UniProtKB/TrEMBL annotation:
Membrane topology: Peripheral membrane protein
Gene3D superfamilies, per the entry: P-loop containing nucleotide triphosphate hydrolases
Protein's cellular compartments: Cell membrane
Lineage, highest ranks first: Bacteria, Bacillati, Bacillota, Bacilli, Lactobacillales
Highest taxon of the lineage: Bacteria
Cellular component annotations (GO), alphabetically ordered: plasma membrane
Entries under SUPFAM superfamilies matching the protein: P-loop containing nucleoside triphosphate hydrolases
Keywords: ATP-binding, Cell membrane, Membrane, Nucleotide-binding, Transport
Protein name according to UniProt: ABC transporter ATP-binding protein
Statement: the UniProt record of this protein carries the keyword Membrane: yes
Amino acid sequence: MEVLQLKHLQKVFFPGTNNERHVLKNINLKINDGDFISVIGNNGAGKSTLLNTIAGNLHVDAGEIDLVDHDVTKKSIAYRARWMSRVFQDPKTGTAGDLTVLQNLVLAQSHTQTISLHWYQKKTDRKSFSQLLKALNMGLENFLDTQVKYLSGGQRQALSLLMATLSKPKLLLLDEHTAALDPKTSQEVMTITEKIVQEQHLTTMMITHKMSDALKYGNRLIMVQDGQIKLDISGKQKATLKKEDLLKAFK
Ligand SMILES: Nc1ncnc2c1ncn2[C@@H]1O[C@H](COP(=O)(O)OP(=O)(O)OP(=O)(O)O)[C@@H](O)[C@H]1O
């Protein structure tokens, strides 16, 4: 089953001016249930624009976006959010700094269910959230009542991931979500990412500039170049792909 289908997507910035820029040029893509796709490409290739059109931050000039068999081409971010979650590069974007870890989790949970006013204070809920946090291996279970602004970037990004996936989205968008982290923390967050994606069987699209991560993680790799999909590699071919093969494909 397809989770996402992109048909002939086109996006032009500053149309009809000297600065006219065709950023997405007839993008066609089918994303299957359970796909974990790394998206790579040069600066300015169109990766973020692609993610922004999928999420609804940008509307396309032509083409169609089908999400879980719904035509969402002209729908808002909020409409699409019932099936989709996104984690951004900046750890501050996905969490509310002035709220505690527990309050952030309750907010994320409340997107999917009705909660009573002091629901988050129940011991049982504290316990279940604490267990979820413990599984991330970042010591977050010790900071349930700490304001998120006092956490490290890695802890905050791990929390963002947990919050984005609490609702078990049909599609998870990761927008260079480890780019702002140091190498060790970045690897820890990637390990957590893989664990969550596998355990929940999440269909995932991950933009990354780290070729080693693009090669290591996921069953499929897409290279965007000059607004087009230059490579789309999956299965065995992806598993045996080498860094040199990718370097050759970069313009
Ligand atoms: N809102 C916008 N208005 C005008 N031009 C834009 C806008 N967003 C992106 N662009 C332009 O579109 C092109 C593609 O940008 P995009 O951010 O999608 O590339 P990218 O592949 O994500 O690059 P990077 O790896 O540097 O993040 C760039 O030339 C950029 O300047």
